[in-house]
Amino acid sequence: MRAFIRYFTDYYRSTSRPALFVTIAFIASLVYANYSIGIERRIQDLPWYAAYGAFVLFFGAVIALAWGLQYEWGKPADASGKPAGTSKEPVDIPEKAAGSPRFFQPRRLLMLLLAAVLFFAAKMIHWNIDLLLPKSLGQPWTRYWPIVLQLPAKLLLLFCLLFICWTAGLLQGDSLLQSTGLTTKGFDARPYFWLLLMLMPVVALAATRPDFLHYYPRVKYLAFLDGYARPVWPWKLAYELSYGMDFLSIELFFRGLLVIGLVRYAGEQAILPMAAFYCTIHFGKPLGECITSFFGGLMLGVLAYRTRSILGGLIVHLGLAWMMELFGWLGNTWMG
Predict the structure, then answer these.
(1) Is residue 88 scored above 50 in pLDDT?
(2) In which domain, by residue range, is 124 found?
C-alpha cells in the first residue's frame, strides 16, 4: 500500500495543475448538467442511430477538451515517456517511445482516440440481439437472452478492435495481452484485495441511500424469470457473470487502451483524459457513484500506468461491482 501512496503522490506532483483543476471544473459542470437536465437519459431516449451519433459527439467533445488541456498545459514527456521532473523509478517503456517533447506521432494518437470514441458510442446503445435468437424461443427467454448476451457481444467487439489496432502497429507490445495490460508479470494481487476491504464500509454506507437501492442490485431486473425457471438461481448467476464481463471490457478499454496503450504517445499525460471520459459513462448511475468514478478512474489509471497491468483494476472493479450487487440486495431486503 505504501507503493500505491507513492504512485499517487508522484502523479500529483508531476501532473499539470492547470490541466488537472480545469478538467475537474469541466467534469463537475457536466455532472451538474447531467443530473439537472439528464444528458445521458435524453440521448438514450433517441432512436438508436441518433443516440449513436449523439454519443460520438458527446464523448468526442469530452476527449477533445481533456486532451486539449493536456496539450496546452501538460508537462513535456522525456525519452522514457514520463513527464519531465517525475520520479526516476524505471518503468517498462520501449526505447522507440522517445519522440516529440509533447506527443509522439500525433496522427496515430488521433486514430486511436477516434476508434475509442466510435467503439464506446456503440457500446452505450442497445443492441437488438433478438434477431439472432432462434424463433422457437418463447417467453421469458426472448427477453432474458438479449439481456445476458449483450455484454459478452460488446466485449468480443472490443477484442476485435484491440486486435486490429495491435496488428496495425498502433499498440506496442510483443502480444496483444501485453500491449493492453493483461499480464501477470511482476503482479502482486494482495494490495488490491486490501483496497477492496477498505472500500467495503463505503459501499455499505452507500447502500443506505434510496438512489443506490433503486439502482442496485441489477439482477432484480430479472424478476420476470420468477415462476418460469425452477431453480432460478443458475439463470441469475449467468447474468451476474455476464455483468462481470462488462467490467473486463471497461478495464481493457479505459486502463488497457486509453492508458497503457497510449503510454508511447503521451506517457503519464494519458491518465487525466481517460478519467474525464470514464466519469461521463457513469452519468446514468447514482450521483455519488458518478462523482467518485472520476477520482477512482484517476487512481486506477495511475496504478495501470505504474504497474503496466490492468489486473489490479479488474480485481477492484469486479469486487466493487459484485459487492454493490450484494449490498443492494441486502439493503432492499432489509428496507423491504
Answers:
(1) no
(2) 2-335
**What is the chain's length?**
336
Question: Which residues are CB-contacts of 150 (< 8 A; sequence separation ≥ 6)?
Answer: 126, 127, 129, 242
Helix, strand, coil percent values for the chain (each to nearest 5): 75, 0, 25
pTM above 0.85, yes or no: yes
Distance, CA of 190 to CA of 197 (rounded, Å)? 11
What are the Cα distances from residue 258, in Å, to 95, 164, 200? 20, 15, 28
Cβ atoms within 10 Å, residue 44:
17
CB 91, CB 307: distance < 8 Å: no
pLDDT in tens, 28-87: 999 999 999 999 999 999 999 999 999 999 999 999 999 998 888 876 544 344 544 444
Q: What is the largest CA-CA distance in the chain?
A: 64
The CA distance from 92 to 7, in Å, is 15
48-73 vs 271-280: helix axis angle to the nearest 10? 150
CB 320 within 8 A of CB 296: no
Residue 181, C-alpha cell as written in the block: 495490460
CA atoms of 216 and 324, how far apart (whole Å): 7
Contact 279, 293 (CB under 8 A): yes
Instruction: Provide the 10 A C-beta neighbour count for residue 37.
Output: 9
What distance in Å separates the CA atoms of residue 24 and residue 272, rounded to the nearest whole number?
Answer: 9
**In DSSP terms, which residues pair with 331 in a beta bridge?**
none
- The whole-angstrom separation of Cα 282 and Cα 82 is 29
Question: How many structural domains compose the chain?
Answer: 1
What is the per-residue pLDDT across 145-158, written as a single tens digit (0 to 9) for each?
999 999 999 999 99
> Hey, what's the cell of 118?
466510435
Residue type at position 140: P
What's the CA gap between 221 and 215, in Å, rounded? 10
- Say which amino acid occupies 36: S
Cα-Cα-Cα-Cα dihedral sign, residues 237, 242, 247, 248: positive
